[in-house]
Design goal:
The protein is mainly α. The protein has one domain (17-116). The chain has 2 helices and no strands. It has helices at residues 15-71, 75-116. α1 (15-71) runs antiparallel to α2. The longest helix has 57 residues, at 15-71. The model has no long low-confidence stretch (mean pLDDT 82).
Length: 119
Amino acid sequence: MQALSEPQVPTKEPAAVTTARWDEANKQALHFMFGAQRVMVDEVMFAFETMSDRMRTETHLFGEFAAKLAASHSVQDWKATSRDCCQHQLEFVRRDCDRLFRHGERLIEATSNLLHNRG
């Protein structure tokens, strides 16, 4: 007959090893929290800058449109003014979309670095 082996009891780690592991886990959690906070603050700053830049640009474009419309003396001038202002608006939207796309790439990179860097 086979002899039954005694169940293995997990050995207790020394207190120093447990404390070191606990300290490392706390350090990683703290690093993650500060990194997440930095990413969130960066996002708030980017949103504020984007909003103020957009308001400034939209106000400038509307001012140009109003000035050109006031200087127009015929329906043909109004058509040309509308066409030019629409073109400016489309160029602004294209630049804005490009900027938001680049920001999305930077945000993904920052989040990836936050999740992969330990300590």
